[in-house]
């Protein structure tokens, strides 16, 4: 083994630190819904202008097979108006039961005044006339803007508890992969889900695409406690270790709710070769806590705040676009 001169050693260490730092993954959750209407082309374009490594988004499907970008299986009454400008009722039909042309009549560009949802995002800027986009439209917009580096972290929104609201898992994954491949985005995509069935299917159908295993162990959501979500896997089968469970399932990345992550679990995950990207981290103190912990990435509704924290630490920032 060669002994490095002190200056060479310092340079090597600095380069190593720079490589590690530059690998940090800043993701705009739903395009950055703290700033712009969620999962919309204006939001994604705003995130590109701001400068993020990855656009995080959710997939659904229309009755006639269009792979669309939306978080909820039903139209969300907190930000959806009909063709007449009226707010939709609280119990709309599933999007999977509506044709793409029908879905395009709805405006999703403004939060409903007075709603609890709107109160959570006081800085979101409305963009009236915004429609639900398709995955193909997003890829086309990114190409048109000339961005050749941003990645896409795509969540398949299925629930094994409500199968009637969404497509069958394998058909859904095949439809999504078809769009990804048609637009030449295979090398720029990761697929993530709370429903681990879809990740197993994706790994089989397209092993080049890394899979991201979402987890939450809270009162309001605990997919790890129910094997219907985890494709039949249980913690007990993996030494009560969630990182071991993700690794055994074939995951490249573990994406836990940030409030569930401990330093011990993070260390174990990294020892297993997993990246750890936490969601959804919005408040400055929370962002600082996750950066201190040493996570590999942050999914945030406020990517501007994450960028500010990164800049203060001297971390390399993903390039933005001219506004």
Automatic annotation (TrEMBL):
GO terms for biological process: lipid metabolic process. Transmembrane segments: none annotated. InterPro entries: GP_PDE_dom, PLC-like_Pdiesterase_TIM-brl. CDD domains: GDPD_SpGDE_like (cd08567). GO terms for molecular function: phosphoric diester hydrolase activity. The keyword Signal applies. SUPFAM superfamilies: PLC-like phosphodiesterases. Gene3D superfamilies: Phosphatidylinositol (PI) phosphodiesterase. Keywords: Signal. Residues 1-23 form the signal peptide. It holds the Pfam family GDPD. The keyword Zinc does not apply. It comes from the Bacteria. PANTHER family: GLYCEROPHOSPHODIESTER PHOSPHODIESTERASE (PTHR46211:SF14), GLYCEROPHOSPHORYL DIESTER PHOSPHODIESTERASE (PTHR46211). This is Glycerophosphoryl diester phosphodiesterase. It comes from Roseateles toxinivorans.
